[in-house]
Sequence to fold (349 residues):
Amino acid sequence: MHETKKGYNETVSSSSSTLVQIKKLQIQYTVRTGLFRKTPLYAVNDVTLNIPQGETTALVGESGSGKTTLGKATLRLLDPVAGTLLFDGKDITKTSQSKLKPFRRRAQEIFQDPYASINPSMTIFQSIEEPLLIHDVGDSSERRRLVYEALNDVRLTPPDLIGSSYPHSLSGGQRQRVSIARSIVLRPDYIVADEAISMVDASSRMEIINLLKNLQHIHGITFLYITHDIATAQHFADKIAVMYMGKIVELGTPKQIVQNPLHPYTQGLIAAIPEPDPNNRFHERPVVTGDPPDPLSLPNGCLFNPRCLKKLGPTCEMAIPILEVTENNHAVACHLYPNASPNDPNHIT
Ligand SMILES: Nc1ncnc2c1ncn2[C@@H]1O[C@H](COP(=O)(O)OP(=O)(O)OP(=O)(O)O)[C@@H](O)[C@H]1O
Ligand SMILES: [Mg+2]
Fold:
């Protein structure tokens, strides 16, 4: 089908408050599919997204949708095959690793596994001091001050006692606080928190989210929060981007995404959120059924069409829907919304 309208991808532009600007980004892995055959797998495909300064943008979606790949790409831990990546207005798409050191200081990651991300043979103090040594920050007393400040920030006190202990003596929640302290000790502007609470026990999860929110409030950190859990995304994020098979299929505020999901895929994800109140355990919308397609053999048209309960027929099977704005900056890539239109680009964030 011939596309005449321009979508979000074409119209989006950054405002002065955009810290990370992703434009038509494509990340490809090469997968061996035979003895002598390699096939490209597009884990991130034509993604455009602005991550505003001092806010949290959440990336949600099923396993394999490309969330981690996109997060790592924004940290330049993966090299794009197409598109551009701007950080604080500077194009870093092709900047060499040796020239990325100043960027690395400003952009950090909180890992999923607090057990794997901290060296068990180092004291907590040494673990948190390490990034300062790598980036050659301060003398030993300045570094001590910064490490203690980071420990105080993540509420691991008293810092001298915690600092001299080893990871094995800490709980999972405390270890995750250590990895957060490690990621904030350089006072970064941007943090990718990839499933940062999924391995922490349920009782500590909200504490960690509130801690991240508080750090954002104090230090103005911009977060890309990657999660399967829309409930915590709703609590932490200013914007939620829903990913499916390497593409953003819907983008909106938590209220828009949770209370008025437009894309049938998002509607399924929302319907699948466990409802604690038995009186409310009635969903008008069915959950997403079936499995995602093989990423090496994607369907034509809308990538969601084989699983979609609201499929319109040939349009959905032939034409790739583009991300377009419906109203109030709520964007969706779905043929059910033919009247969606590209909005005033200056209003899209
Ligand atoms: N190193 C790799 N080599 C080849 N393919 C990869 C590699 N890493 C990821 N993939 C593939 O890229 C796609 C996106 O993976 P990715 O890990 O980004 O998804 P995700 O949304 O983070 O999933 P999850 O929720 O399970 O963490 C998947 O099809 C995955 O199998
Ligand atoms: Mg992942």
